[in-house]
Design a protein that fits this description.
The protein is of the alpha/beta class and 428 residues long. It is built from 15 helices and 15 strands. The structure holds ligand C6P.
Length: 428
């Protein structure tokens, strides 16, 4: 097994006949990392089922952030003194750690941003505005988060390009035959989520990149949800761009990553101007710094990048395979437990999914359900999850969503089940 989101697992799973996972026994999962997350000591009754919104942070990441500010803090690339040189080296090693983690060929293919949203906007503004012409087409999917939809619609509006949408089936899978029809020589880019934040669906990214490249189009993968739930290898995926946020990967908020193939990044113009991204500045012209500096104008989030590297070290210490196994168990358990509650409708029953379960409860608005669960210390998300086209697809305004991570246990799933039953009783 490669991972929950990589192509090896996908290819294997492609033969699966049903979306129903094997029956499960309520056993304590083998992963034992919960003690590393101080939030659960401070809030002992917290049942945190909103890791798709943001993950909790292990102590070592919090400590790394504090250690940088306490003893290593200096601006980078600027100082001639030792502290600045050391901070620069630490920042550079964080970039190398990210590159290794996602299988990039070079550290310079990693650009630090504020998060997935900024990474995608960078590509839309820089690559998009310089390449996309009237009549060109950009293909998104019906399950995209607004972060991987709105920047492309804005780009289409400003360039005269056309935004196309690959539909989602009733099971919550991408309609690949429609995708195959939509990708034509007019397509410049396919923008697709790796793992849906609403449905949990894992998309067949490798098939999409093969399809797009055969038509001469590029592929941007939104890895916001996938990166914390199994090993990602951008070269195995064959994508041109890959975006993710540190805060969903046990790291700090305010730091994210754009991976881009070196040759593309070299060609792309900068999108923000300022310090750090120039070679020379004169009245008669400016030259740009090399990649990746060309895309990192101003003082970057140095401490956050360093703490992100620590978060990656945490993930590596747990191991992608252990994460996949643990979360698959929880998802299987949750699917069984929730399906057995009358009035629960699962939204998203794809054959290949991970870490996220969305549902509605008949007669109870998801927000009310969220409030009842909160009274029992259970944190879920309720709403449209920044995926309004997908909500429309299922004829819903909102769903309730539980999402799992390494620190969740079967007891959390049982607490969720009981909480839903309580809400059902209260509203009947
Ligand atoms: N989803 C959720 O589902 P930022 O805010 O830039 O860190 O991530 C945006 C984003 C992009 N793509 C996907 C697939 C996402 O799930 C998200 C963030 C959160 O709860 C917040 S809406």
């Amino acid at each position: 097994m490669k991972n929950s989101v990589g192509e090896t697992t996908l290819a294997k799973g492609a033969d699966a006949e049903t979306s129903v996972q094997p029956p499960h026994v309520l056993t304590r999962s083998r992963l034992d990392v919960r003690d590393q997350f101080p939030i659960f000591a401070i809030h002992p009754n917290l049942v945190y089922l909103d890791s798709a919104a943001t993950s909790q942070k292990p102590q070592r990441v919090i400590d790394r952030l504090a250690r940088f500010y306490a003893g290593e803090n200096a601006n980078i690339h600027r100082g001639v003194y030792a502290l600045s040189a050391e901070a620069t080296a630490t920042y550079d090693s964080a970039r190398a750690a990210v590159a290794r983690f996602i299988g990039a060929a070079l550290p310079d293919e990693v650009i630090f941003t504020r998060g997935t949203t900024e990474s995608i906007n960078l590509v839309a503004q820089s690559w998009g505005r310089s390449v996309v012409k009237p009549g060109d087409e950009i293909v998104v999917t019906e399950m995209e988060h607004h972060s991987n939809w709105v920047p492309w619609q804005m780009l289409a509006d400003s360039t005269g390009a056309v935004l196309r949408m690959a539909p989602v089936t009733e099971a919550g899978e991408l309609d690949m035959s429609a995708m195959a029809r939509l990708v034509t020589p007019r397509t410049r880019l396919v923008a697709v989520t790796h793992l849906s934040n609403v449905l949990g669906t894992i998309n067949p990214v490798r098939r999409i990149t093969d399809l797009a490249h055969a038509a001469g189009a590029l592929v941007l993968v939104d890895g916001a949800q996938s990166v914390a739930h199994g090993a990602v290898d951008v070269r195995d995926l064959g994508c041109d761009f890959f975006a993710f946020s540190g805060h969903k990967l046990f790291g700090p908020t305010g730091i994210g990553v754009l991976y881009g193939r070196e040759a593309l990044l070299e060609e792309m113009p900068p999108w923000q101007g300022g310090g750090g991204m120039i070679g020379t500045v004169a009245l008669d012209g400016i030259t740009w710094a090399e990649v990746p500096m060309k895309f990192e104008a101003g003082t970057p989030a140095v401490a956050d990048a360093v703490a992100l590297a620590e978060a990656i070290a945490f993930v590596e210490s747990v191991g992608a395979e252990a994460i996949v196994t643990h979360e698959a168990e929880l998802l299987s358990l949750a699917t069984e437990r929730l399906s057995a509650i009358p009035g629960v409708r699962l939204i998203g029953t794809a054959a290949h999914r991970a870490s996220v379960i969305s549902f509605t409860l008949e007669g109870v608005h998801p927000h009310d359900l969220g409030t009842v669960l909160d009274e029992a210390g259970i944190a879920i998300r309720a709403g449209h999850h920044c995926a309004q086209p997908l909500m429309r697809r299922f004829g819903l305004a909102a769903t309730a969503r539980a999402s799992f991570s390494v620190y969740n246990t079967p007891d959390d799933v049982e607490a969720l089940g009981r909480g839903i039953e309580r809400a059902r009783a209260l509203f009947s």
